[in-house]
Specification:
This protein is α/β, with parallel strands linked by helices. It is built from 5 helices and 5 strands. It has helices at residues 16-26, 37-47, 67-77, 91-97, 111-123; strands at 6-10, 30-34, 53-56, 83-87, 103-106. The chain has a 5-stranded parallel beta sheet, sandwiched between helices. Strand 3 (53-56), helix 3 and strand 4 (83-87) form a beta-alpha-beta unit. Helix 1 (16-26) packs across helix 5 (111-123) and helix 2 packs parallel to helix 3. The model has no long low-confidence stretch (mean pLDDT 91).
């Protein structure tokens, strides 16, 4: 039996984080939730070798750490880790500042679209964004 994909979701919005986590869990993902960049970085250190994907909001309420920083750290630990940036920022910001091969999911998004994006990334060959 294959283990459930483990997805780290970092989101500072108190309504979006549980919705994203519940949605991904409902389709068979094991979800690790983080409400701050600091919590996400700690989760990366604790679970880095066992993560299947990262879903990161960009603006996390801290001027010092963003979802871009979390994704860069995730890729230092696992260069092939699929990354989805879920943000209201412009796609150009994500392309300019994001990690290579990351997928941009504009907010607001419907939960089904989040599931489709995660599933597509997990099904793609390593290092290839869907």
């Amino acid at each position: 039996m294959t283990a459930a994909p483990r997805v780290l979701v970092v989101e500072d919005h108190p309504l979006i984080l549980p919705l994203a986590a519940e949605t991904l869990a409902s389709v068979g993902c094991e979800v690790i939730s983080a409400a701050t960049a600091e919590a996400a970085l700690a989760a990366l250190d604790a679970h880095s070798g066992r993560l299947s994907a990262l879903v990161a909001d960009i603006d996390l309420g801290s001027p010092d750490l963003t979802g871009f920083d979390v994704a860069r750290r995730a890729r230092e630990l696992n260069p092939a880790l699929p990354v989805i940036y879920a943000s209201a920022r412009a796609a150009e910001d994500v392309e300019a500042q994001g990690v290579p091969g990351a997928v941009y999911l504009p907010k607001p998004y419907c939960p089904a679209r989040l599931c489709r994006q995660v599933a597509a990334l997990l099904a793609a060959p390593a290092g290839i964004a869907a």
